[in-house]
Amino acid sequence: MENFVIHRAGTRGYADHGWLKSSHTFSFAGYYNHERVQFGALRVLNDDYVAGGRGFGDHPHDNMEIISIPLEGKLIHKDSMGNSAIITTGEIQVMSAGTGIYHTEYNADPSEAVKFLQIWIFPNKRNVTPRYDQMLIKAKKPNELYQVLSPNKDDAGVWIHQNAWFNMGEFDTDTNVTYKLNNAADNGVYILILKGQATINGQALDTKDGMGIWAVDELDINAQAGAQLLLMEVPMEVKQQ
Amino acid sequence: MQAKILVLCKHDGIRETILRLLGNNADWQGIGTNNLFEAKQMLGSDNFDIALLGNGFTEAEESEVTEFVNQHSPGTKTVYHYGGGSGLLSAEIYQALA
């Protein structure tokens, strides 16, 4: 039995609202595909483009761990907890929506578009106290995976209410790396190729292709020169305390 | 025939947002409450297709709703709502009604 699924970039759901163009790996808003609802606790993987000066007005969220990663440009965030911040390329933002928050998210540049990933992870506990954080995540050196998210406050990167670990990597030369899962018994890994080409456990992937793998202890990754990767290790079953 | 959906949510703004979104779909009829007692009264007296459990209830209260539905309204599906707005709502309802 296969233990992986591949979602090619061009098969994702797509919404074009003019100022907002969004590719949905999983069912979201007006896009519904019963075969693409989630990968374990990974429920939303949106690849968004927002035109200069535009953005999302005040709107609510609850019971979700929401992670934003700018790929080009910068976002300005304001929320009902009193946070006001600019998040730029090379940073990661996390919100635990919990019992409920309101926020706005706009392109911080009046003319240049911002491109960013919006990722939603089911929390392992409902109705937590809302929280916000952001952090610089730029790679210290290329050709290595580096952690940008974990369940642990004292670990590298931001933390969330879920047993999930995110790693990123930028490669300027052909590189072979191995990713060992933190919790192979319960978790799978969803890989998004942000840029370039890579081969994961023998499967060739191109820009914005996604691949989910489960029932493995580690991944064998061959990243080609110019590749950028995001690895999201998440529980395959959503359990709540 | 419209699907009848009871929205249980203690956050007024999020409950209103969910009801507004449900109202945008002619196939769905949403009714909201933030009160557990009122929710049980409504579930006992009307035929809901879905009880959508939004935020703010304790785990014990959520279990109380699920047990009440199982005993008194077995045709109703209990669905946990996540996200608080338009992102996941449609998929949650389509999945429950499938």
Any overview of this molecule?
- Chain B: This is Response regulatory domain-containing protein.
- Chain A: Residues 14-121 form the Pirin N-terminal domain.
- Chain A: It comes from Mucilaginibacter pallidiroseus.
- Chain A: Residues 148-234 form the Quercetin 2,3-dioxygenase C-terminal cupin domain.
- The complex is a heterodimer of chains A (241) and B (98).
- Chain A is mainly beta and 241 residues long.
- Chain A is built from no helices and 22 strands.
- Helices cover 0% and strands 53% of the residues of chain A.
- The radius of gyration of chain A is 17 Å and the shape is globular.
- Chain B contains four helices and four strands, in the order βαβαβαβα.
- Chain B has a four-stranded parallel sheet, sandwiched between helices.
- The two termini of chain B are 14 Å apart.
- The model of chain B has no long low-confidence stretch (mean pLDDT 94).
- The interface between A and B is medium-sized, with 24 and 25 residues.
* SS field, number of helical segments of chain B: 4
Number of helices of chain A: 0
How would you state the average pLDDT of chain A, rounded? 96
**Which runs of chain A of at least 5 residues are low in confidence (pLDDT < 50)?**
none
Rounded to an integer in angstroms, the radius of gyration calculated over CA atoms of chain B is 12 Å
Distance between the termini of chain A: 31 Å
- Which range best describes the helical content of chain A: under 10%, 10-25%, 25-40%, 40-55%, 55-70% or over 70%? under 10%
Q: Strand tally of chain A, please?
A: 22
The CATH class label of chain A is: Mainly Beta
CATH architecture tag of chain A: Sandwich
What structural class should be given to the helix and strand makeup of chain A?
mainly beta
What is the rounded Rg of chain A?
17 Å
Biggest interchain interface, per-side counts: A-B, 24 and 25 residues
Share of helix among residues of chain B? Answer: 40-55%
CATH superfamily of chain A: Jelly Rolls
What would you call the quaternary organization? heterodimer
Which segments of chain B are poorly predicted (pLDDT under 50) over 5 or more consecutive residues?
none
The number of domains of chain A is 1
